[in-house]
Amino acid sequence: MLRKPDLYNKATAFRYKGFSYTEILRFIPVSQSTISRWCSQISLTEKQKERLLKKKRNTPLIQRLRKRAIQSKKEADIWAKEQCGKISSQKGKILLTVGAMLYWAEGTKQSGCKGIGFTNTDSEMISIMMQFFRKIFNIQENKFKITVRMGKNGNIKMAENYWSELTKVPKTQFNKPELLILKENSKSLEKYPNGMCRININDVSMARKLSAFIEEFLNKIMSP
Fold it and tell me: Distance (Å, rounded) from C-alpha 134 to C-alpha 130?
């Protein structure tokens, strides 16, 4: 068996050649933490970094996840086109228009988002969005989670009762409230005694469908 100095020299030599820690471990019988400690100060060239990144992206797991995401996006696009075509009643079309525009303006749209989120202090907007999610997207009731955000000195129990009654979501589906530290001269609690209500739907597939749905809706509006 090689002695420690020999192991160290061999490991660092592999690293200088651009080997990953996992690749080095195939030849050096030590722990990954040891390899990391020995090689952490060795800088790789851009070409070496590119090779490792490409190798990481091409692992079977990453390939399967990428393929699944692409397929899910295609299914979401098809679903969005079909759903837009299904809505025939005037009331349904109004709800679709208002809900889509509200979410486009105020909803969670970050890249890589794992769910749907809409936050507002306005009770009418929250009510409309709940109808939008229930009637247009047929979201199952157990998918809804509500988070109340308000100043730490506010009446959180009153606020949760208020939003629960408005959204028709039981308080057993409420997340832990987010209590904010407001400025001393803040009038937020006077203006919004029930704080902000955040509608959470933790469903990646539905988030993709909503994104595709709004894109399809906007294309219809903006097309000549």
Answer: 6
Structural domain spans, the chain: 4-58, 63-222
Q: Which residue has the tokens 């749905």?
A: 213
Nearest to 100 by CA among 84, 77, 89, 86: 84
Identify how many contiguous H helices and E strands the chain contains and give both numbers. 10, 4
Q: Can you tell me which residue has the tokens 């660092």?
A: 12
Q: What pTM did the predictor assign?
A: 0.59
Contact present, 48 and 16 (Cβ < 8 Å)? no
CB-based contacts of 179: which residues, under 8 Å, 6+ apart?
A: 150, 151, 152, 154, 156
76-87 per-position pLDDT tens digit = 566 556 665 555
- Ramachandran angles phi, psi of 137, nearest 5°: -105, -5
Strands (E), the chain: 116-120, 144-151, 178-180, 196-201
The residue type found at 213 is F
Token pair 């987010």 is at which residue? 178
d(CA 78, CA 143): 23
Do residues 200 and 116 make contact, with C-beta atoms less than 8 angstroms apart? yes
pLDDT per residue over 38-92, tens digit each?
Answer: 999 999 999 988 888 877 766 665 566 566 656 656 665 665 566 655 555 677 7
Judge residue 194's burial from the number of C-beta atoms within 10 Å of its C-beta, 0-12 exposed, 13-18 middle, 19 or more buried.
Answer: buried
Half-sphere exposure for 170 (CA within 13 Å, toward CB): 4
